[in-house]
Amino acid sequence: MNNISYIQGLMDYQNQVRELQSSVGVPTISDNNNQTEKPFGVHLGEAIAGLNQNMNVIDNDTTRVISGDENDLAKVMINMTEAQLSLQTAVQVRNKCLEAYNDIKNMQF
Q: What's the domain count of the chain?
């Protein structure tokens, strides 16, 4: 009988937390437009595709500046900065993934 009251207490607590989250406006997993249902690999692939797109844009902009087709140097510099930040972020994510992999690899069970 104790276990049933304990489980009922947990269920009541979960319901209270959900009500509090909805009243405060904290998004739940179902409110997140399926963002949490995507696997990590999908998010990583999208990020790499975005990085590739930024690098292609800056490559095209650089070619156009050199050939004289592009006169807006400020736009090219903004695109270059965006590409640089994207690349730096990708390198840091890679470093963290490798660090986590090495930590897991070195664990002894």
A: 1
